Amino acid sequence: MNKLEFSDLNKFLTSVGLIFIGIAFLLPWYINQNSDLIVLEQTKIDSSTKTAQNIIDNQQNYLNYISENLICIVITLLIVGTTLLAWGIIRWNKRQNVRDAKENEELNALKKQNITEQEKKDIIKGEIDSEIESINTDKTQVVQNYLDIENLIYLKISNYYTVNYINRQNIKIGKFNYDIIMESKHIQKRGDLIIEIKYITNADTYSKFIDSINQFLFAVNHYESTQERSVIPIIVFVLNEKTNESNLEPIKTKLKRYSSNIRGNLRLKIIEEKKLELMEAPKILENE
To answer: In this predicted structure, what is the pLDDT of residue 56?
Structure first.
């Protein structure tokens, strides 16, 4: 057994508890090992010196007392030892949980990295490459529009939601990128909000929207598993001014049905670019 560490009460309690439990198991062995002394013949005792007789007599009385009360002594030692051991472990576990939570928080903080502006532009370029080719539009302008829209939405949200959320933009966790993370200050009352913004320059197919939703939910699942926090995912589709929203009605109907089926608390919002400037944050984040 390691040396008792009195500087730490939890270690002290568990150590003493283990000692008591150990003694309870050793007592029967100790009695058995000294059984010869208990049944020692009187003639041998009488032939010993006076000092030896006193020692033998004291040991016999001690062993006899333990033998007669062995069950009570063992049970008492086990109860006291188990109680001290459990108390020490419970106290240690509470402190360890606090330490683990702090370490997890620090680890998660290290995992969260801000995406640079250039990295963000590269991500956007990758998203819009196929669309740009089909509508013959200047890629640089579309990228800038995309960035302006994301920044505008983030500015509206940051200005409006400051009491209950810590707002962060362009965060990378693992291999996943997050446009906006609204980290709840009261996670017991409300979950974090993760917002994905998609700038649609060519709303030609239903599958384009579905792919965006599915990729977003992969990122949401990663966030939930690594951060161990509940999440309300929100995906906002902002339509380019050239996109005719009236043509999207059939797609919007399908998207509502799909989003509710794939995840109950998923919020879906489709906004025309020209209406975004005057729209307030709660309106942007409400479900379609």
So the answer is: 65
Q: Which two tokens stand for residue 279?
A: 């729209």
Q: Beta partners for 194?
A: 181, 233
Question: For the chain, what are the domain ranges?
Answer: 9-109, 115-285
151-198 pLDDT, tens digit each: 999 999 999 998 889 999 988 888 888 999 999 988 777 889 999 999
Instruction: Name the helix (H) or strand (E) containing 195.
Output: strand 192-200
Whose CA is closest to 18, among 73, 80, 85?
Answer: 85
Distance (Å, whole) CA 98 – CA 100? 5
Q: Which residue type sits at 107?
A: L
Quote the pLDDT of residue 6.
Answer: 40
DSSP character for 248? G
Residue whose C-alpha is closest to residue 165's, from 140, 182, 144: 182
Query: How far apart (Å, rounded) are the C-alpha atoms in residues 179 and 236?
Result: 11
| H runs (alpha helix) in the chain | 9-33, 35-38, 42-46, 50-68, 70-111, 117-135, 139-160, 206-227, 249-262, 273-276, 281-285
* C-beta atoms surrounding 203 within 10 Å: 21
Q: Pick the closest to residue 153 from 287, 285, 288 (CA basis).
A: 285
- Domain 115-285 maps to which CATH number in 1.10.12, 3.40.1350, 3.30.750, 3.40.30? 3.40.1350
pLDDT on residue 155: 92
Global pTM value? 0.58
